[in-house]
């Protein structure tokens, strides 16, 4: 058996022409990359999945949007909400959640393209790829590239959103040439040969250094000690780095220490920012939530905050949350003048994805006996499986804006973020339930790139009418 380490990138194997050149993946057509998956999954009956719900009748394709990219972004949102619930169930009530569902989904989508049999079926179902059309599914790596082109294209100098991918492979093995070509062309993930067999610790240090360089030193140890051994075959790494400035900044003189109340009754003091400005906001009475959007300069990316109404338990909002409901809340927002209080915080954490994904039904991929990944190593070897998946990330929110980094690795190992704000503001209403970074292109919710549930507090109060 050989271990495949997934560090938030993806593993795939494809059957296609050995060599072809693509000058710009963002302008390429599907025919420019004639890739056929090694195995194709066909869903005999499309049944509604948990978190999928029914598409609203008014839901129509936004102008100038590729319908395949739109399908993929909706599938990712469905996965994000469902995975969030499983992650929340694994946490204590005082703990926080911070993760990048797009990174996770992308990494395992690449794994899907090298998978067959029940391994492929479980990947399709868990990541909601079976809810999209067959045409989109068969070319899913191509449309992931298109989605990334829209998401990471630099539109202004005020915000920076960068993703970097890399494959680190055992140098004594021959990897599927098509797999290497597609990973480099579509995701910029070039293969870096390392000596896992004889120098696993040195290999770990090299990978961690690469991640640190790609995340402005915010993520330094994505692979922990003993995370790589002499059986490791491939490590797939994805990093995301975001730094943005608020469109309407919080004046620094307004930041004051406020008394916060912890769940255990203790109190602590937390710097709390404040401003009065116009923001998009909605109160959804039937769902007992408030929704607030804080845009970054350029309006390409916004921070979305969802707060339960007073007396509404967090668990109630989490239980009933779906991607369609979340999108409906976003569509309901209108611009209005508000007082906004928001804690200033900086957090970093990591966790394993393996057990959460197994509970969702992704079992064979992590099994040495049952995993089928014939499209990764040359000659169709199938003795590969994913031993672990980790996600690690960093987030800082202050008066000027936000800075976030995420890194994942596949042993297969993935990377992840967690935030830790165990306090509540005294006398202010609203406990932050969902904090999400949303990419908006052509005036639509493209994808939730970072999904958070810090159990902290913010307050949103309407500005009184001067009479």
From TrEMBL:
Recorded family membership: Belongs to the serpin family.
Organism: Geospiza fortis (Medium ground-finch)
Pfam family membership, one: Serpin
Signal sequence segment: 1-17
GO CC terms of this entry: extracellular space
Extent of Basic and acidic residues compositional bias: 44-62
Subunit-structure text: Forms protease inhibiting heterodimer with TMPRSS7.
Protein name: Antithrombin-III
Function: Most important serine protease inhibitor in plasma that regulates the blood coagulation cascade. AT-III inhibits thrombin, matriptase-3/TMPRSS7, as well as factors IXa, Xa and XIa. Its inhibitory activity is greatly enhanced in the presence of heparin.
Subcellular location: Secreted, Extracellular space
UniProt keyword annotation of Disulfide bond present: yes
GO biological process: blood coagulation
Record SMART domains: SERPIN
Chain intervals for the UniProt region annotation (Disordered): 44-65
One of the record's GO molecular function terms: heparin binding
Domain Serpin residues, every copy: 81-454
Record keywords: Blood coagulation, Disulfide bond, Glycoprotein, Hemostasis, Heparin-binding, Phosphoprotein, Protease inhibitor, Secreted, Serine protease inhibitor, Signal
Source taxon at top rank: Eukaryota
Main localization (coarse): secreted
